[in-house]
Amino acid sequence: MPSDSTPDARREITLGVGSLGAGSVDADGTPDVAVDLGPQHPSAHGLLRLRLVLEGDRIVSAEPVIGAMHRGAEKLFEVRDYRQAMVLANRHDWLSAFSNELGVALAVERMLGMDVPVRATYARTLLAELNRVLSHLAFLGSFPVEGGPVGYYAFDEREAVQRVMEEACGGRMHYMAVQVGGLKQELPEGWLGRVVDAVAVVRRGLGPFDELLRDAELRDATRGVGVLTRDTALAHGVSGPVARASGLDVDLRRDEPYLAYADLADSGVLRVVTRDEGDVLARLEVLLEQVSDSLDLVIACAARLEEIEPGPINQRLPKVLKAPEGHTYVWTEGPLGLSGYLLVSRGEKTPWRLKMRTPSFAHVAALGEVLPGERLGDVVAILASMAYVVGDLDR
Questions:
Q1: Is the terminal CB of the chain with fewer CB neighbours within 10 Å at N or C?
Q2: 3 state DSSP class of 220
Q3: Whole-prediction pTM
Q4: Residue 123's domain spans which residues?
Q5: Is residue 369 in a domain?
């Protein structure tokens, strides 16, 4: 049996919560060394346990172990009315809060056969794209910290967007702006002009990101690293920017449009960004270009809202809202990927079943095939580029 110091010795390292104690031995007698880097270590991106078996510094196998943040949201939906359900849906991906509550509202509206005022449709689209910008900037801005000692970007840019989102919704992180039938309140006076100003701030801030992705050292460190092939992405149901970086040209905003995306696609504003390489660098490039495209969509929605005649921004609802008996499935193109909502109703004020399909689950599941063959030192950069949120993973 080789000693633990020889190059071909295999070691098991656990990143995250619940790691094994040191000193365990495999069936073949090879000693395992378990290292607990802590539940909040950046390599785990939250309460995620990742078990790696190593040969030297090369990963032989990887097993994501999830469930540390499971809160039972889908069971809690069954005892919450449709207004209260927004609170739970809003929180599983804290970077995509607006998109989460939007999906639930769209499902109930479909069950009711409800038409939403055109002003609400464009306002929802605008807010959804601002939320997408916030989410993408969070991953782009934190990557230099996790991938190398470059610094933290996007503070000013995210704050500019955060301010206008908070002004329109009232919440800074969990917006609670959507209601069945539209938005809860009218947009503030002069708000669209402040949105245009915020977009300008973000556009100016994209320069350092572009320079970062052109940096030879970063490109050498990320090119060919953490490759997610197109077939693997398809097999695991990976979606969103991560899948598009692997050559999957899929975007529900274009392919099965909802809200105002059909009009935006027809006018040529909506653009789907793809790459074929499927590595860390490709995922970063897709995120950056996606931000630029989302800013174009925001400006187009703001211009359209300026043209639309004054009118309601929501539908009047009964005091007790009940969805008719039946079921429906709605999916949206969230910032991280495809988010699905299966709503089953028995005609009561609470859903009989509300099941969510979240993109983070598929992204983390794919790590079992992405990480083997990579070096331990590249794990943090790979995880940082895979665009997942642990609350969205466990719910």
A1: N
A2: helix
A3: 0.87
A4: 73-394
A5: yes
